[in-house]
Amino acid sequence: MIRTIFAVTLAICSLSVAAGTASAQLIEKKTISLAAAKKMAAAAEAEAIKNNWTMVISVLDDGGNLVDLERMDGTQLGSIEVSQGKARTALQFKRPSKVFQDLVDKDQPHLVTLDHVTAVQGGLPIMMDGKVIGAIGASGGTSAQDEQCAQAGLNTLVAP
């Protein structure tokens, strides 16, 4: 009987240690939900409508996966890929895609040879607690208009 109690106690302790070790190996992280992506895209679209622009708005999660894409009526098809490229650039490099546009403009054209870089203004990383949890990109207007719409979407998450 004592051996049985000891064996059960030892098994429970082993499971507790194993569970503690397993949870110590996992990382909890935040990412963009579908609801947040739709809210951001709606705000970006509202900004475009207010200014009589047409846009494609792309929202990516922290892994670069497309969570939401909105293509306003009349927006050119090419903006679908461009908006995703801008968002992907912002996500992978943790900075606005405009940084790359500015560097290319300052006589550093070699930057456009980097894989998955869309060196055009309009992509913004979504940051939380100092970490990138996603990105938003817009395309369809001028680069400044694109970023204005992306910023309007981003503001829905950072506004009080």
Broad structural category: alpha+beta
Shape: globular
Strand arrangement, major sheet: 2-1-4-3
Number of helices: 5
Query: In whole angstroms, how far apart are the ends?
Result: 62 Å
Task: Tell me what you see in this structure.
With 160 residues, this protein is of the alpha+beta class. The protein has a single domain, classed as 2-Layer Sandwich (Beta-Lactamase). 50% of the residues lie in helices and 17% in strands. It is built from five helices and four strands; from the N terminus they run ααββααββα. The chain has helices at residues 2-24, 34-50, 78-93, 98-105, 143-158, and strands spanning 56-61, 66-71, 123-128, 131-139. A four-stranded antiparallel sheet has the order 2-1-4-3. A hairpin with a 4-residue loop joins strand 1 (56-61) and strand 2 (66-71). The longest helix is centred in the first third of the chain and has 23 residues, at 2-24. The chain is globular and about 50 Å long.
